[in-house]
């Protein structure tokens, strides 16, 4: 089962994805992609770890901000949950922003991730943010991020068996296995 869960910030998508992954299997790998660039982000990461523990989510956790496709490819866990793809993408964008071919490199990384997702033998739940519903970002880097995020989400949604949009804590199924374009 390949599942993509999307939604806005604080929509409840991570909590839903964790519950869904737990239904798919009692053990697995939780892949966190966040990096702590400052004290506020360190507190957020700590709170996220604590909330997972309080909800009884006792899987193995791997913190991997960059080598996501490689980690998924070599994982033997029966279920993998990745939270979240837009943080993974922003990690790479910040690393490559001065490169003249940054967008091409990021498109290649997205393609690699999509290929690994499509070929995965284990159940995989990917969490991402829906970032295209707001205003056009004022800065070039923000526009590049928004555009890449949108293309990444579309690419992964095509490979997914199910796609959910979470709004106000309510998951809405957008795509099911019975309807694959």
UniProtKB/TrEMBL annotation:
GO terms for biological process: cobalamin biosynthetic process. GTP binds at residues 7-14, 32-34, 49-52, 63, 83. Belongs to the CobU/CobP family. Pathway: Cofactor biosynthesis; adenosylcobalamin biosynthesis; adenosylcobalamin from cob(II)yrinate a,c-diamide: step 5/7; Cofactor biosynthesis; adenosylcobalamin biosynthesis; adenosylcobalamin from cob(II)yrinate a,c-diamide: step 6/7. InterPro entries: CobU/CobP, P-loop_NTPase. CDD domains: CobU. It catalyses: adenosylcob(III)inamide + GTP = adenosylcob(III)inamide phosphate + GDP + H(+); adenosylcob(III)inamide + ATP = adenosylcob(III)inamide phosphate + ADP + H(+); adenosylcob(III)inamide phosphate + GTP + H(+) = adenosylcob(III)inamide-GDP + diphosphate. GO terms for molecular function: adenosylcobinamide kinase activity; ATP binding; cobinamide phosphate guanylyltransferase activity; GTP binding. PANTHER family: BIFUNCTIONAL ADENOSYLCOBALAMIN BIOSYNTHESIS PROTEIN COBU (PTHR34848:SF1), PTHR34848. Catalyzes ATP-dependent phosphorylation of adenosylcobinamide and addition of GMP to adenosylcobinamide phosphate. The keyword GTP-binding applies. Transmembrane segments: none annotated. The active site is at 48 (gmp-histidine intermediate). Keywords: ATP-binding, Cobalamin biosynthesis, GTP-binding, Kinase, Nucleotide-binding, Nucleotidyltransferase, Transferase. It is an enzyme of class 2 (transferase). Its EC number is 2.7.1.156, 2.7.7.62. This is Adenosylcobinamide kinase. It holds the Pfam family CobU.
């Amino acid at each position: 089962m390949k599942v993509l869960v999307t939604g806005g910030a604080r929509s409840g998508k991570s909590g839903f994805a964790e519950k869904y992954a737990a239904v798919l299997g009692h053990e697995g790998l939780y892949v966190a992609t966040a990096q702590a660039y400052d004290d506020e982000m360190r507190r957020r990461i700590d709170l996220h770890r604590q909330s997972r523990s309080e909800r009884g989510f006792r899987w193995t956790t791997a913190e991997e901000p960059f080598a996501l496709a490689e980690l998924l490819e070599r994982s033997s866990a029966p279920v993998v949950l990745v939270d979240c793809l837009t943080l993974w993408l922003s990690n790479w964008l910040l690393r490559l922003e001065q490169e003249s071919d940054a967008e091409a490199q990021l498109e290649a990384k997205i393609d690699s991730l999509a290929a690994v997702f499509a070929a995965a033998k284990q159940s995989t739940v990917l969490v991402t943010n829906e970032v295209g519903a707001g205003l056009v970002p004022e800065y070039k880097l923000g526009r590049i991020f928004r555009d890449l995020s949108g293309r990444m989400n579309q690419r992964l949604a095509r490979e997914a068996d199910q796609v959910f949009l979470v709004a106000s804590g309510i998951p809405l199924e957008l795509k099911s296995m019975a309807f694959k374009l």
